[in-house]
TrEMBL record:
Binding site for Mg(2+) 2: 90
Named cofactor requirement(s): Mg(2+)
Entry protein name: 3'-phosphoadenosine 5'-phosphate phosphatase
UniProt-listed SUPFAM superfamilies: Carbohydrate phosphatase
Listed Gene3D superfamilies: 3.40.190.80, Fructose-1,6-Bisphosphatase, subunit A, domain 1 (3.30.540.10)
Classification via CDD domains: CysQ
Keywords: Hydrolase, Magnesium, Metal-binding
Natural source organism: Edaphosphingomonas haloaromaticamans
EC number of this enzyme: 3.1.3.7
Residues annotated to bind Mg(2+) 1: 69, 87, 89, 198
One Gene Ontology term from the biological process aspect of the record: 3'-phosphoadenosine 5'-phosphosulfate metabolic process
GO MF term (any one): 3'(2'),5'-bisphosphate nucleotidase activity
Length: 254
């Protein structure tokens, strides 16, 4: 009988993709089982997906460190150059509500940089990764800006107003970031608080697609830090970046 991972998978990108896709399949199966619903479904999904991802990385990359939203942080990771940063279920609320705007994030940070990433969108289903991402597309006419469907960030709403942008509510960070990669929106601006696992895989994929990625002050996103709080993010085509960053500076100076 064949196993999911026969031997060691050499490519980090292929490994990230296969882990994210398989975790997504597991989550969809659990979602359709009828055994859980609502918040209980979300909690079960977090635990089950995390257990699979941790076991897969232990088998395939035993010498690498792992930072997962669902695991107790091990400070030993700070001594490693290679750290897998994962969110087993990004958008737990959306998953529990049986929506499609949730994701699985599997990323590898090397020396603090989001280098390899895969974002699975199992509800569609689709997986984007750093070697198979869509080309970055720029929409025409009125720009569309992605915001949280439950708590839109103040800065994003203000910038959208100045740009004349249409606000597009959506669930998980991964779903929003991949909507920009797929050309379904032009700007994802977030300032309401996130952690490294929320953005590492989406950032890696967005960079590979040729998009601008930074913090909202224009500085780079740095991963595998002692404090994993990484509260803000901008993903957009390069043609929008200077204008959006300038508007944010104006808002902060006001």
């Amino acid at each position: 009988m064949s196993t999911l991972f026969e031997g060691i998978i050499g490519s980090d990108v292929d490994l990230a993709r296969r882990i994210a896709e398989t975790a997504g399949h597991i989550l969809v199966t659990l979602q359709k089982s009828g055994l859980f619903e609502g918040k209980a479904l979300g909690k079960a999904g977090d635990r089950v997906a995390n257990a699979f991802i941790m076991e897969a990385l232990k088998q395939q990359r035993p010498d690498d460190a792992v930072l997962s939203e669902e695991e107790k942080d091990n400070p030993e990771r700070l001594k490693r150059e290679r750290v897998w940063i994962v969110d087993p279920l990004d958008g737990t609320r959306e998953y529990g509500e049986e929506r499609t705007d949730w994701a699985v994030h599997v990323a590898l940070a090397v020396n603090g940089r989001a280098t390899v990433g895969a974002v699975a969108l199992p509800g569609i289903p689709l997986t984007l990764c750093t070697e198979r991402s869509f080309g970055a597309l720029v929409g025409r006419g009125k720009p569309r800006m992605l915001v949280s469907r439950t708590r839109p960030a103040r800065e994003a709403v203000a910038v959208a107003e100045k740009l004349g942008a249409e606000l597009v509510p959506m669930g998980s960070a991964g779903a929003k970031a991949m909507a920009v990669v797929r050309g379904e929106a032009e700007i994802y601006l977030h300032s309401g608080g996130q952690y490294e696992w929320d953005s590492c895989a989406p950032v890696a994929v967005a960079q590979a697609a040729g998009l601008h990625v930074s913090r909202i002050d224009g500085s780079p996103l740095v991963y595998n830090q002692a404090d994993v709080y990484l509260p803000d993010l901008l993903i957009c085509p390069p043609s929008y970046a200077d204008q959006v960053l300038a508007l944010i500076r104006e808002l902060e100076a006001a």
